[in-house]
TrEMBL record:
Highest classification ranks of the organism: Bacteria, Bacillati, Actinomycetota, Actinomycetes, Pseudonocardiales
All residue ranges annotated as the Glycosyltransferase subfamily 4-like N-terminal domain in the record: 23-182
Coiled-coil intervals, chain numbering: none
Keyword terms: Glycosyltransferase, Transferase
PANTHER family, per the entry: GLYCOSYLTRANSFERASE WBBK-RELATED
Keyword presence, Glycosyltransferase: yes
SUPFAM superfamilies in the cross-refs: UDP-Glycosyltransferase/glycogen phosphorylase
Official protein name in the record: Glycosyltransferase subfamily 4-like N-terminal domain-containing protein
BP GO annotations: lipopolysaccharide biosynthetic process
An annotated Gene Ontology molecular function: glycosyltransferase activity
Amino acid sequence: MRLGFACAWDPRPEGTWSHTPWNLRNALRERIEVVDVGLIYPSAVRTALKAANARRVEGRWVSMWKHSRLARRYGEVSLDRSLRANPCDVVLQIQDLAPVSAPFLILQDLSYDVLFEHMDENGRLVHFPSLDRSALERLRDRQRGMYERASGVVAMSRWFADHLVNVSGVPRERVHVVNPGASAAWTGQEVPAEVRQRRIDGPRRRLLLVGKDFFTKNGPQVLAAVAQLRAEVDPAITLTVVGPAEWPVPGEVPPGVTFLGRQPIDAMAGIYDDHDVFVMPSRFEGFGIALVEALARGLPCVARKAFAMPEIVEHGRNGALVATDDPSELAGAIARLLADDTVFTRTAADAAAVRGHYSWERAADEVVAVARQVVRT
């Protein structure tokens, strides 16, 4: 079987979509013949498309140029030309790039139908501020057309698979769930025994939040909950924030909070190991690989009861789930978790299984199985 691999690569391709396509392609290459069929935007084309689609939103320039008609058309022509030169049995597209003549699969974690459900009260998309309703409708209709033509859609979670069936109308038999792997090399390494024992023995007071987009991860709710915990439960409780380039809210960093900013991925294993509970009650989350990374290091998690997060965090077993933006609800969940010896013991015991499942080798095996199924039919 000859698999065409199609991705709209960033200028530094290995970093595209948080390393997901790069790692999956490497793992696939160890199993079957993989042919790169695009998609690379030359620098001049990328610059022109960015400029043509730039919009001023809340005082800053943003450009969702990859969603534009011109970018889509460029991708269609480029992908068609590449496949004519390199015929394949089946094509794996990272996101819905273009309809092609060969059988093709689409790998995704979210859809435009999902975005429609998360507009704010003003009809705006917080996470894609330059896309208005008419543009979103156009993109949704195009995407649904792609789903109709695709041989299948590879969904990263059961939640998204169900959404594809129930909302987007994709037939159940053409939807396949393949969880992603974790990108960091250290995810597969065993947690030091002294770290496991320290969390079990206590005291447990060190909380961690990781994410570039502080507000999408609901950082303000986390800050308010920590302030409440320090005032009402234990003044020694602390929070470390990793991800944003600069402190993301007005004023100084609050008492009990350490801001580390951006950190290299190789440093993150030690950061996870230095903490007791991972807190990330995201308001919007395609999958939540940071939760996987935390659990792989034996760190119980507090997440939101939404999107794919309940598939990763099991309430009462390896963490807790909250349902609202209420800081008091979050503070209560954290307090109960810090006091629950059983959860810490179970999470430490389950870490090896987490590391084993969330590997790109396993993901590649499952993608190959889906591709072979398409070729046989």
